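User: Could you go from structure to sequence for me? I need the amino acid at each position, not a summary. Structure tokens:
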């Protein structure tokens, strides 16, 4: 009997992380959720298990504690077949403009932490000769906008990191996926008025992540319309773009 594939989901207590866990569990994968809050981890693992009939393991992981990353990865035996990072924090743009601690939190949560931990996993997978890495980025990283440029800058860095990692790891048999969800109806965006045609539900993102892993896609736009929206936004000349209210 073939051993089921395994996936580790970082940021596993997020709405997207939980949706991805459900999608992978229903597809027969062994799922481990990793996040900072043990109580939330236990609750969400139980929820996923109830919905899928599959036992879900949990690990404590803090995306801001970069000093713990090497020990966290080294303690995994065996290394999972796939690692998915759904770690993220929208933050408050206005606050980030004057509160450097808050700006740092947004930058570190969306770029530094996810990039460094996925880079470590990439090293181990390259040595093994197989594996899949998935990073959930954002269309906000496609061009800096006045309404969220601190968050957008972090996601732009993460998108570039994933692109470079994919290019580097390709010949070593390691697949790297960049996921661009666009707006998603989650706890993180509950205070925002989201446009229906451009907004995805978490289960749609979870299904897209699973499909990208199984079909070895490189860049995934969860709602295809975002590819064209961002093509137009990127093409706007700077003298025009700086006058927009995006």
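Assistant: Here is the amino acid at each position, in order:
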């Amino acid at each position: 009997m073939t051993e089921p594939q395994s996936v580790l989901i970082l940021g596993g207590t997020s709405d997207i992380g939980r949706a991805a866990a459900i999608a992978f569990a229903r597809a027969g994968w062994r799922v481990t959720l990793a996040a900072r809050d043990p109580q939330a981890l236990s609750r969400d693992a139980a929820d996923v298990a109830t919905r899928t009939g599959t036992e879900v393991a949990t690990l404590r992981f803090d995306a801001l504690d970069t000093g713990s990353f090497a020990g966290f990865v080294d303690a995994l035996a065996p290394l999972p077949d796939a690692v998915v990072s759904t770690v993220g924090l929208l933050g408050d743009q206005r606050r980030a403009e004057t509160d450097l601690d808050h700006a740092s939190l947004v930058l570190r949560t969306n770029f530094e932490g996810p990039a460094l931990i996925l880079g470590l996993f990439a090293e181990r997978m390259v040595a093994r000769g197989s594996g899949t890495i998935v990073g959930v980025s954002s269309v906000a990283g496609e061009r800096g906008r006045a309404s969220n440029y601190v968050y957008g800058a972090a996601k732009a860095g993460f998108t570039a990191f994933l692109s470079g990692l994919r290019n580097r790891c390709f010949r070593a048999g390691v697949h790297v996926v960049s996921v661009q969800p666009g707006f998603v109806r989650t706890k993180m965006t509950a205070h925002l008025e989201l446009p229906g045609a451009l907004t995805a539900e978490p289960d749609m993102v979870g299904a897209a992540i699973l499909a990208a892993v199984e079909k070895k896609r490189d860049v995934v736009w969860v709602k295809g319309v975002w590819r064209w929206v961002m093509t137009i936004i990127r093409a706007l000349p700077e003298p025009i773009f700086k006058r927009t209210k995006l």
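One structural detail worth keeping in mind: Residues 103 and 123 are 29 Å apart (CA to CA).
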